[in-house]
Amino acid sequence: MATISVNHLSFSYPTEDGQKPLTLADISATFPNGGFSLLTGPSGSGKSTLMKIISGLYPKFGGLITAGEVRLNDTKISDIPETDRGQLVAMMFQNPNQQFAMDTVERELIFALENQCVAPADMMARVDRALDYVEISQLRHRQLNSLSGGEKQKVALAVIIAMQADTILLDEPFASVDPVARQLLLAKLSRLQHEEHKTIIISDHDLEDYDAYIDHLFVLNDTGDSLVLLNDKAAQQKMATFKRQDTSNQQLLLPKKTDEPIISANNLKLTAGTSTLLTQPKIDFFQHHITLLTGANGTGKSTLLLAISKLHQYNGSLLLNQKEIAKIRPNRLYQQVALVFQDADQQFLNVTVSEELALSLKNSQAPAYFKDRIPKFLEKLQLTQLQDQVVYTLSGGQKKKLQILEMLIMATPVLLFDEPFTGLDFSSLQAVMTIMKQVAKDCQQTMIIVSHQLFGLDALVDYHVTLENKQLQYVEGLA
Amino acid sequence: MNPSLKFLLAVLIALEISFTNTWTVNLGLAVIGLLVILSSRPSLKRLVLLFFVPLIPAVALAVAILLQSNAGIHFALVLFTRIYAYVFVGSAATLTTSVADLVMSLEQNAHIPSKFAYGFLGAFNLLPKIVSEVNVIRAAGNMRGQALHIWSPQLYFKAILASLDWSENLAEAMTSHGFSEDAPRTYFKQIRIRWWDWLIVIGSLALLQVALFGLHLQ
């Protein structure tokens, strides 16, 4: 049982020239004991920072508390010995790839229990129970590297359950998790709250699906200087604007006979480790169209995009303009196909925002088109003020917007997007989609988009392909 | 055999043969090493590599001695066999031990600080990721019209940046999973040193002395 209180907290990431711009400025709030609290706010407002301060990771791993404090049951977080902290607060991270130290699921759980000095004889029972609770016993001996984003988040939750932490912090945990897995995780968290009286704090910019679960809604504003607990009525109103748009009856067309295929798969087989992800007798993706690709976690959507980009081996045939992708030289291939990576950091080659944009413009296939439009795009994406900033210091959402923009500027004929909308708040999402649609039309691009988030996509995409039972198939419905 | 003692034994043997000039002992050690390697049923490819990779430095050294110095055939033979003894004895230790076991043994038996043990294990688990990351960086470069060659500083800048990022995340992940430097921990898998581990170490070293001195006296 734990009450977390934030008292007049100010936090800064000092810059190299000695300045201390405040990421969080004089914020106060109390997260009630045993409650399920949701912390929301636009991309870049400092939600992750606040979560890491509460978990005790900051300022140990970065930044500086310039004023105020965070208390856990009247004890300052920094005064709690690290060895005791695991039982009090545990955290699930935004990036599922970066929260494990060991190689397999079971070893990671054991590692956490060893750190807590659990008696070896009790360990297996706790591991069994935690895996069982999250319904992932079958993943027990799997390599963590081979799991999908959603599976990794389930493992992360299992670790937290095994550690029996009192307060569970989740920092945008569902960014790369499909709706089914998301519902499962939310239901598990709700059970933990009600049956085991855990205190749960989730940060998320997207409020869909939460209204059945949460007790309190906290809002951090975009400049990080106000954190308020909304009253029930205001909370209801805010949630209502995020109600899942009913996508179930939105209809798309199926490809027409006259459509020109640009990417064709024949007897394509994709594998990850020892498991087969896809066996596809035949499918085409069509030129000058935007195709949405959906499917549950771990079914191989990202792997397919990687295969088309020659970053994952495949069996069978995968043709781009009638040429076998495996046989196209990389520099040739990447003039025709580019991938917007799931992890934005992988895309960046330079240091500052303006350098990144300049590189794209220099090598763009449509420089004249973009030269005049870049300032307008930057403004729409709210990146204009950030041009001198180091790309790696941008927030998750800002990175994503910059990444998408710089890849659009390249004007590569085929552009693949792997979860481009994660971490984007509502207005950013709208801006990004408008720009994608415009560029695709003006530059006659072909796009394939993998996305869990379907909101507003009916206006962007032409066709919808689902990946289910190891098969790709065109469908008419969006959901 | 206990992993820490196994590695200690391999290092001591390597050290000792660095200062001795008996090629028959080197050959004997290489053969014993090979037998241990074979007992772990390695793949044919690995076995072939084990024979051919040391051949390059071994031949180079032997030829250099024969042509450039007047130390004679005997010394060339000593150096040639010494390289094979190093490689086979070393491989006999590494190929029969999993990294996880070695790290746990180093932590529990050799009492090296746990942050080194787990830092090493974490870094080892990152190795395959580093290889694929370099491929991704080069592809990302090509996609932006920038060819990154194996000698491009940008490639290394990105790779180092990614590694720094990972190491930071690894440290955060370990901390959030309750790991704390120098704090006491329990061990699910206890790794013990048993009497026969010592017997093997002492016995092997004693045999080595007998062999070296015996042959030396002849």
From TrEMBL, chain A:
Q: Which GO terms describe its molecular function?
A: ATP binding; ATP hydrolysis activity; ATPase-coupled transmembrane transporter activity
Q: Where is the ABC transporter domain?
A: 4-247, 263-479
Q: Where does this polypeptide localize?
A: Cell membrane
InterPro entries, sorted: AAA+_ATPase, ABC_transporter-like_ATP-bd, ABC_transporter-like_CS, ABC_transpr_CbiO/EcfA_su, ECF_ABC_transporter_ATP-bd, P-loop_NTPase
**Pfam families reported in the protein's UniProt record:** ABC_tran (PF00005)
Q: Does the keyword Isomerase apply?
A: no
Q: Does the keyword Cell cycle apply?
A: no
Q: What is its main location?
A: membrane
Which GO cellular component terms are attached?
ATP-binding cassette (ABC) transporter complex
List the CDD domains. ABC_cobalt_CbiO_domain1
> Which PROSITE patterns did the record assign?
ABC_TRANSPORTER_1 (PS00211), ABC_TRANSPORTER_2 (PS50893)
Taxonomically, which superkingdom? Bacteria
> What is the protein's membrane topology class?
Peripheral membrane protein
UniProt KW keywords: ATP-binding, Cell membrane, Membrane, Nucleotide-binding, Translocase, Transport
Query: What family is it from?
Result: Belongs to the ABC transporter superfamily.
PANTHER family linked to this entry: ENERGY-COUPLING FACTOR TRANSPORTER ATP-BINDING PROTEIN ECFA2, HEAVY METAL TRANSPORTER
The protein's name in its UniProt record: Energy-coupling factor transporter ATP-binding protein
- This chain's source organism reads Secundilactobacillus silagincola
Question: Which gene specifies this protein's sequence?
Answer: ecfA
Automatic annotation (TrEMBL), chain B:
Where are the coiled-coil regions? none
**Membrane topology term:** Multi-pass membrane protein
Q: What is its main location?
A: membrane
- Compartments (UniProt record): Membrane
Transmembrane keyword on record: yes
Instruction: Give UniProt keywords alphabetically.
Output: Membrane, Transmembrane, Transmembrane helix
Membrane-crossing residue ranges in chain numbering: 6-35, 47-67, 73-95, 195-217
Gene Ontology terms: cellular component: plasma membrane
Is Cell division one of the keywords UniProt gives this record?
no
Official protein name in the record: Energy-coupling factor transporter transmembrane protein
Q: Which organism is it from?
A: Secundilactobacillus silagincola
User: According to the entry, what is the taxonomic lineage of the organism?
Assistant: Bacteria, Bacillati, Bacillota, Bacilli, Lactobacillales
